[in-house]
Amino acid sequence: MPPVPASREAPWLLIIDPQRIFAAPESDWASPFWEQSWPRIQQLAAQVGPERTLLSRWLPTADRSTAWGEYFRAWPFADVSAADPLYQLVDGAAALSAHPTVDEPTFGKWGPQLEGIVGPAPQLLVAGVSTDCCVLTTVLAAADAGAHLTVVTDACAASSPENGAAALHTMGLFPPQVELRTSADVLTRMTERSDDGDQ
């Protein structure tokens, strides 16, 4: 039997870096949009289910002899052990997925580890933080690799309104690999597909 085209497969939900360092108000890297994005992320995860929901984490384990050394010198508060509470998931996040977290020391999370779970050309719903850093870099790398991506715009948390708008504009330049949709639109379409499958 031939494989099912990725566009017809049930999607995976990738929640990028729902960690305290990007969410806690006292963190220097907290997104001002996290609180409004988080309930939408939870709704998406409830619809997709834990078996097809993945969480990633950015960890401070990059080689300091590279340009990452300069990066951490610029942000010394983040230059702590990967076991530091800063890098833990936000409350409630771990329960959304049945899988271990995809941990990477890079902004972009697309790579052999993630591809090994979802396959080389998956249908991915993308949410998380931040729109203008780890979401952007993950989406563009995955698009290059042949994935079909839906960026759930209001389930992504940016560092600022201007940076978020710029990142969404940039990702929107890459159809048909990348499309931009709101969480309401995504949930409606998923419900309609589920109803069609029940008939």
UniProtKB/TrEMBL annotation:
Keywords: Hydrolase
MF terms (GO), sorted A to Z: hydrolase activity
InterPro entries assigned: Isochorismatase-like_dom, Isochorismatase-like_hydrls, Isochorismatase-like_sf
Hydrolase found in the keyword field: yes
Cross-referenced SUPFAM superfamilies: Isochorismatase-like hydrolases
Isochorismatase-like domain boundaries: 12-172
Signal peptide: none
Pfam families reported in the protein's UniProt record: Isochorismatase
PANTHER family xrefs: ISOCHORISMATASE-LIKE DOMAIN-CONTAINING PROTEIN, PEROXYUREIDOACRYLATE/UREIDOACRYLATE AMIDOHYDROLASE-RELATED
Record-given protein name: Nicotinamidase
Organism: Brachybacterium avium
